[in-house]
């Protein structure tokens, strides 16, 4: 039951706090009808400017931490698998961000929301800060070198799953047994959702037509994070 509650809490936070959409509404536009057509950080930044993009990213990331804090407030340290509940909430966050029920299930692509899920794990007094540091470093290096935001995002998300598994094998993740297997499944699904939502970007990366940082838009259909 706790798992379902956490999934629902995450979904509600992820969908209702649809930052890009609401920021656009405050500026009298539906952000999904501009640029790449999604409500994520990159499209907001390209459509409404850097400040709007930064605000969108911060709120989309922080909503995972807000949800995790509520879960901690409800259950505290009464459960041995609190990190697992954070991950269930995190999956809900990403699903809500990507598929908000009141917007026709058309939201963002989940990168900012996923980064928030990773950061929420830092609430544990373990080595989980390494996941955040590794994710930020990977995203920054790949994006700066390749000039592709989508590539940096996807490699960073892939790294999150791989790093989580490695850290669990050396005892740095406070889960074991079936709870750890569940955590593997959840982190894999979260990573897989990023690839599913970036299917168009992946195709353009393969074709060499993906838009680089600073490059002028070529088509209205072009999608990014």
What is the percentage of strand-forming residues?
under 5%
SSE topology string: HHHHHHHHHH
Strand element count: 0
Rounded to the nearest angstrom, the radius of gyration is 17 Å
Number of helices: 10
The low-confidence parts are 219-225
Number of domains: 1
The biggest sheet, with number of strands, parallel, antiparallel or mixed sense and barrel status, is: none
Mean pLDDT: 90
Distance between the termini: 33 Å
**Shape annotation:** globular
Helical residue percent band: 55-70%
Backbone structural class: mainly alpha
Task: Write structural notes for this entry.
It is a single chain. Helix 1 packs antiparallel against helix 4 (50-75) and helix 8 runs antiparallel to helix 9. The protein is mainly α and 225 residues long. It has ten helices and no strands. It has one domain (2-207).
């Amino acid at each position: 039951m706790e798992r379902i509650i956490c999934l629902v809490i995450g979904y509600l936070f992820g969908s209702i706090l649809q930052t890009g959409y609401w920021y656009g509404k405050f500026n009298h536009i539906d952000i999904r009808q501009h640029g790449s057509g999604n409500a994520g950080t990159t499209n907001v930044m390209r459509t409404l400017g850097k400040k709007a993009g930064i605000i969108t990213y911060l709120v989309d990331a922080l909503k995972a931490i807000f949800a995790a804090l509520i879960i901690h407030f409800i259950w505290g340290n009464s459960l041995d698998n609190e990190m697992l509940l954070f991950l269930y909430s995190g999956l809900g966050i990403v699903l809500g961000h990507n598929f908000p029920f009141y917007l026709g299930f058309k939201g963002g692509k989940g990168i900012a929301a996923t980064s928030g899920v990773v950061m929420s794990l830092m609430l544990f007094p373990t080595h989980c800060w390494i996941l955040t540091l590794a994710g930020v470093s990977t995203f920054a290096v790949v994006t700066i070198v390749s000039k592709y935001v989508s590539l940096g995002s996807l490699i960073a998300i892939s790294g999150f799953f791989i790093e989580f598994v490695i850290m669990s094998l050396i005892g740095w993740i406070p889960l074991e047994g079936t709870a750890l297997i569940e955590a593997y499944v959840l982190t894999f699904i979260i990573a897989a959702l990023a690839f599913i939502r970036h299917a168009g970007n992946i195709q353009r990366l393969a074709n060499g037509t993906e838009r680089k940082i600073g490059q002028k838009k070529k088509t209205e259909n072009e999608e990014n994070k």
